Amino acid sequence: MNDSLKTLLIIAFLIVIVWNLGAGLYYMLVDKGESKRTVNALTRRIALSIALILLVIVAIKMGWIVPHGIGSNPH
């Protein structure tokens, strides 16, 4: 898997997470507690966030991505 595809996958996850967060806010303002759409949107956001974290952990363990950042030593 090339680097741009990995980056696009992570960005797509983040966009869907933010979309569900916005949907939860919208439903909270519009429904005024009359339906479960807010809870469903926020539940999807949490599930997607957990899935993204697990995906990144698995990708690091499998060697598909290499973490880097401030204070890291290059190999």
From TrEMBL:
Pfam families: DUF2909. Keywords: Membrane, Transmembrane, Transmembrane helix. The chain crosses the membrane at residues 6-30, 42-66. The keyword Transmembrane helix applies. This is Succinate dehydrogenase/fumarate reductase cytochrome b subunit. The lineage of its organism: Bacteria, Pseudomonadati, Pseudomonadota, Gammaproteobacteria, Lysobacterales.
